[in-house]
Amino acid sequence: EPAPAAPPERLPVLTVRGVAPNRLNLRAAPNGAVTGALREGDRVEMLAEGRAGDRDWLRVRAGDGRVGWAH
Question: How much is the pTM?
Answer without folding.
Answer: 0.81
